[in-house]
Amino acid sequence: MSKRIIVAIDGPAGAGKSTIARAVARKLQCIYIDTGAMYRAVALWAMRAGMDLNDLHRLEILAASAEIEFAAGSSKVLLNGEDITAAIRAPEIAQAASKVSQAAAVRRALVEKQRIMAASGSIVMEGRDIGTVVFPDADVKIFLDADPGVRATRRTEELKQKGVSVEPTEVQREIQERDQRDRSRAESPLMQAPDAIYVDTSGLSLEQVEEEILKIIRRKTSNGQGRGA
Fold this sequence. Notes:
- The strands form two sheets. The protein has a five-stranded parallel β-sheet, with helices on both faces. Strands 3-4-5 form a three-stranded antiparallel β-sheet, covered by helices on one side.
- The protein has helices at 17-28, 35-48, 56-65, 91-100, 104-118, 130-134, 148-161, 168-184, 206-221, and strands at 6-10, 31-34, 68-70, 77-79, 82-83, 123-127, 140-145, 197-200.
- It is built from nine helices and eight strands.
- The longest helix has 17 residues, at 168-184.
- By secondary structure, the protein is of the alpha/beta class.
- It has a single domain (6-218), classed as 3-Layer(aba) Sandwich (Rossmann fold), CATH 3.40.50.300.
- Helix 1 packs across helix 9 (206-221) and helix 3 (56-65) runs parallel beside helix 5.
């Protein structure tokens, strides 16, 4: 891209943020940053260390010291040099990450890392507080959403494709619990930024959502709103 831009994509679990953000970043030749993977990385490290997820002091130290990298041109996630891409997608890690993300000190540590990552060029970053906390002045803000039942079905299919056997009702229960935690936490709760554009993906294909997001980005950045090179 000719000028550096920041695209913030927020939304609840199962709305399609990761898939869409990755596709859009590839199309725009931007850096893709999955902030949810960063919390999963911290949760994975904490669980491997046998750490109590309620021990906020140790979690803060761990989050601050974690070296998290996203391999350019791929979906790989590295933690302290180790490829943890597959390991962080386990259901138990997702649940642990949701708990870890409620710790204010952990969020502050990872937000600092996210801002450093964004300094290197144009980015597409997705999560739950990107447009409200991490980059409140982002050039483009999108809030992706979908019907809870649709989100649960998507997550169930995603897990099945990875060889994880799950009950749809259990997945829907976990998504509802996660939504509740994300929306009610004291630090950086999940919410739509006032200037974010709402996109309901319930009845749309991946290609349709991608095209809609690209249209929004073109509209927002073609009239001089970009932040420049």
